[in-house]
Amino acid sequence: MATNGLVTGLKVFLPVMFCVMLATLIYTIITDGLPEPDRRDVFTPWFATTIVDFYINIVPIAVWIVYKESTWFGSILWAILLVVFGSLTTCVYLFMQLLKLTPQEASEDPMYFLLLRDSFKDGVGLRDKKSLVVTARFVFGALGCVMLGALVYTCLTDGSPFRMELLYPWMVVLLVSFYINVAVLSVWVVYKESSWIIGILWAALLLSLGSFGTSVVIVVQLFRLSPLDPLYLVLVKNTNRAGDMYERTHSAVLRM
């Protein structure tokens, strides 16, 4: 029942967030115009830092979409849409993936079947000499450092971000899109942890520290993997990496 409730909740949450984001975007364009590059009232130091924050947070979502898609054309197309339209694309893509779940998948472990590519849903756990785990640790660690540096620099040069004058229309649009993506990532973070308390604490880190928190969470999850593990194992719970699923896949490969 709880798993079906999760699927239903996401099917409601994603369209609502899509509508909120679209309405916010349209309203801001009508009332405040387009955010042209020469508008100094829009492109403030904290707006630039928030853009960096926004796009670093998009990286893990884009990587997942590229992994999830079966063709390079689909991967590139969705990645471009994600870069251009942000959380609007996130909501549409996730909703489409939820609709693909069978009733059995939705009742068993919807997050597992949602996150993994179709070709891996019959089991996970094989080791791969060409694993990208170490590379991913470095990449997300570097992204976290970039974001931390940007935050520190902007704080030193432009002061605190907690100022009412910074909540101008286009900053609000950016923040709405940013936090929709954070909410999506938080669902994954809570799903990953065996303890609700730890999951909620990690989600709070994402909400408070943005993409720096996201990078920390992902690096921690990557260090829970062996350097020889397939990178996609970072998507699923530890309980999905062993036992019957591993044995089924391992046996199937040996027979090949």
Automatic annotation (TrEMBL):
Pfam families hit by this protein: DUF1475
UniProtKB keywords: Membrane, Transmembrane, Transmembrane helix
Keyword field contains Membrane: yes
Domain of life: Eukaryota
Chain ranges passing through the membrane: 12-30, 42-66, 72-95, 134-154, 166-191, 198-223
Record-given protein name: Transmembrane protein
